[in-house]
Amino acid sequence: MRLAVFALLAACTEPDEATYTQYNGDDDSVSVEVGVETRYVVADDGTESPETAQTELTSSTGAVVIGTGTVSPSAGPIGTFHTVIVEVDEEYAEDVDRVAVRTASGERGEDEYDLERDSTGEGYWVFELESQGEEGEQRTDTLTFLLYEEVESGE
To answer: How confident is the model at residue 6 (pLDDT cuts 50, 70, 90)?
Structure first.
């Protein structure tokens, strides 16, 4: 009977969580202005689109460009939804198993959000982030892109 109970308990244990190591550089970040009017750029054909903040994503040493990180719009009032996009170049896309963005908002502190991998493109990740704050508050947030590679376990 004890053996049966132990076998049942062993079957109910959760598998080990994945372990990740950072794949990109520590300084892959952009600035987003919160609590200000959204800025727009005008294309040659006269159409307006929100200004974006974009950075190259680099390897862990910073020597190789492995993709881009973009936030649109790059500025907006409290409550603005910012689209966070990471595009990993095709030759590195298979190495990246998880993507997150860390927000540093001054006195509001830091948060980290996982991006969702697009079903049609292995190197395309996206997340909608809503800016939070009090009425009249203005600040510049730093969004840092974090790309992770899963570390193989010894099992």
So the answer is: very low
